[in-house]
Amino acid sequence: MDIPPRGAANALRPFRRRAVAVVALGSAAAAGAIAALAAATPREAGGAARVQAHRAQAEGPAGVQAHRARATVRLTSGLRHSPLRTSCRSVAHIGDSTSVDLVSAADIPAPAQRLRARYAQMGVRQVRIDASGGRSIVEALPGQVNGYDVARAWRQAGYRGCWVFALGTNDAANVAAGSRVSLNARIGAMMAVAHGAPVMWVNTVSRLTGGYWSIANERAWDHALVSALRTYPNMRIFNWAAQARSGWFLPDGIHYNRVGCQMRAEAIAKALARAFPMNGRGKGQIVS
Questions:
Q1: Is the pLDDT of residue 234 over 80?
Q2: Which of 70, 120, 213, 259 could form a disulfide with 28 if both were Cys (CB 3.0 to 4.6 A apart)?
Q3: Is the pTM of this model over 0.85?
Q4: Within a 10 A sphere around the Cβ of 215, how many other Cβ atoms?
Q5: Which long-range contacts (CB under 8 A, 24 or more apart) does 146-153 make?
Q6: Structural domain of residue 254, as residue ranges?
Q7: Which has the higher per-residue pLDDT, 265 or 66?
């Protein structure tokens, strides 16, 4: 399916923020990521961990060493036996600036918390990520490739695997600005490229009450995604909009602060495991 000729709508420009394409290819072994996770103390276990650490210090050097060994065993064991694993062995993730942030050391300093490592933790072995600031499915800024053309090029090059489309924020704005390519046509173009393979869309959310990127326009995009579920049995939606907290946003109302980026990267990977689980029994077409 070919989509109409491209042309960057004016709506794109205020949120260009970052126009850097990132392509990450490689094994999901990620030994460094696992080691970094094992060296960290889980937030949810913080209280108990502190009590045990103080107790170990009171017991002297031998107690401290034993405490560290126990902590490492608990953490690595939890990773090996995580109930969340996806049947997707390869994932192609295409996104806009809100995905650029998920692979950026500036936004997520710890490699184990970035998107590629999070996918690896869910059992994904091969990851492709292409994210670009201001990206939409149809329009393209100067020097940029739109989402549709990225996906089409990968499929023509032989990619066969699961897809994650973290697009729509700018598409909603461009349609509101007067684009003649409808929301449904944009979704249909991406689904045509997937050609029946598993697809998970990350829906959109805004904190803005007016303008092209308003709450109302982003919700219209999300409603279009839900409507498309009736047409595409291979399609799932991660309801990120229901999870995003106000404290995770930057003042622009679209992008996320460091905590928000960390939470979003983890949430997307876990949603993929719920959408297309290892046991093959997903819980509906909308996952959270």
A1: yes
A2: 120
A3: no
A4: 16
A5: 146/6, 147/94, 147/96, 147/190, 148/3, 148/189, 148/190, 148/193, 150/94, 151/92, 151/94, 151/190, 151/193, 151/194, 152/193
A6: 10-30+85-287
A7: 265
Confidence of residue 15 (pLDDT cuts 50, 70, 90): low
- What's the pLDDT band for 211 if we cut at 50, 70, 90? very high
CA distances from 185 to 50, 73, 163 (A): 54, 50, 18
Would you put residue 65 in left (φ > 0), alpha (ψ -120 to 50) or beta? alpha
In a domain, 122, yes or no: yes
The CATH number for 277's domain is 3.40.50.1110
Write the CB contacts of 2 (distance below 8 Å, at least 6 apart in sequence).
none
- On whether the CB atoms of residues 145 and 108 are closer than 8 A, the answer is no
Q: What are phi and psi of 240, to 5 degrees?
A: -65, -35
> What number is the average pLDDT over the span 175-185?
98
Q: Which of 187, 105, 200, 99 is nearest to 138 (CA)?
A: 187
Q: Rounded to whole angstroms, how far apart are CA atoms 238 and 181?
A: 24
State the residue for tokens 């997903």.
282
Judged by DSSP in three states, 2 sits in: coil
135 pLDDT more than 50: yes
Token pair 């490592």: residue: 117
